[in-house]
Write a structure and sequence with these properties.
Layout lengths: L2 E11 L2 E7 L4 E3 L1 E4 L6 H13 L5 E4 L10 E8 L5 E10 L12 E7 L1 H5 L5 H12 L2 E5 L5
Parallel strand pairs: 1-7
Antiparallel strand pairs: 1-2, 1-4, 2-3, 2-8, 5-9, 6-7
């Protein structure tokens, strides 16, 4: 089975996170994709957020983060991504400005900003909901904007 490193990004504004309805997979997911050659997971997270939504986010250093953890890192999970094989997925949260508009891409048919109640009822894999709750609960110690490539 093919294996690839990937990232997922929970864009967060106020008390909501952004989820998209993925066309090919027909389910609700956070923004994400595979790392490109030479990218760190944080660089990939910032790129995927920008490419798939037009948003720029601040990746906060989170309270309780271990030394060396990248800003915004909230977890790691693995899942089979259909014909793309096993995705070894680094998960991040990024704070985005309240007034910033999402510019959708061709990968999804619709998007929603969801709070805890809507997230709990979301038709998605359970880890999407669990990590979404983690993103909503994560508290910032410091804000760090990743460097532009």
């Amino acid at each position: 089975m093919r294996r690839a490193f990937s990232v997922a990004v929970y864009a967060r504004r106020n008390d909501t996170v952004l989820v998209i309805h993925h066309r090919r997979l027909d389910t609700w997911l956070p923004i994400g994709g595979e790392l490109e050659h030479g990218e760190t997971p944080l660089e990939a997270a910032a790129r995927e957020l920008r490419e798939e939504t037009g948003l720029a986010g601040d990746f906060p250093v989170l309270q309780g983060a271990a030394d060396g953890e990248p800003p915004g890192f909230i977890g790691y999970e693995e899942h089979v991504a259909g014909s793309k094989g096993l995705h070894m997925n680094f998960v991040f949260v990024a704070d985005v400005p309240a007034g910033a508009a999402v510019v959708p891409c061709e990968e999804y048919s619709e998007y929603r900003w969801v709070g805890p109640t809507d997230l709990a009822a979301l038709s998605s894999p359970i880890n999407v909901r669990e990590l979404g709750f983690r993103a909503l609960a994560a508290r910032s110690a410091v804000i760090v904007r990743p460097p532009e490539p």
